[in-house]
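During the no-cost extension, the postdoctoral fellow (Dr. R.K.) reprocessed legacy sequence entries with the updated structure-token encoder. One reprocessed record is reproduced below for audit purposes.
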Amino acid sequence: MTVEGAEPGTVRPGGRTARVREAVLRAAGDCLAERGFAHLDLADIARRADVGKTTVYRRWGTTTGLVADLLVDMAEQSLPRTDTGSLIGDLKANARLVQRTLTDPRQGALFKAVIAAATCDERTAEALHRFYETRVEEWAVCVEQAVARGELPPGTDAQEVIRAVSAPLYYRLLASGGPLDEAFADRAAEAAAAAARAGAYRG
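Re-encoded structure tokens follow.
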């Protein structure tokens, strides 16, 4: 995506293009958190971001295009993986990061809105899948390191272990309810670690 009138690769990172993108994505995230995907409107986003409507329409085109770029930005801005030196320490760090994100007043509402949108819009779903794959791939390294240290059986599917950590947190957020606190996050990490040690994720 490029600014109107600019050739690809000619706009300096950190220049006006970056400032416009930052303002628009922040406004889009605020609107999603406040009102949900159904009420996302490009003209309203432009007004909130104090950006010309033409710029928003030409750069993003549709609300789904805007949400897709928002997810790219969220992946880029996510906190880096924690390396504690032990499997359970790393998995708990992952679980607590997910827990803090989902219970944050803005971020939790934002994720709910995006997940809801993904159930009925293919482009949003694809963007959401890419977002999570990016995060899973980053954190899977800690499982691979645990295999190398002998904490887990050879052949353990590292990405499946990471998915098993966060799955209960998302289930509680979206389906079952109940407190989504640090203790619950730790239990999710411990359960995934125990299953991985038992060989549940081999192959």
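The CA atoms of residues 2 and 8 lie 6 Å apart. Confidence is low (pLDDT under 50) at residues 1-13. The remaining legacy entries will be reprocessed before the final report is submitted.
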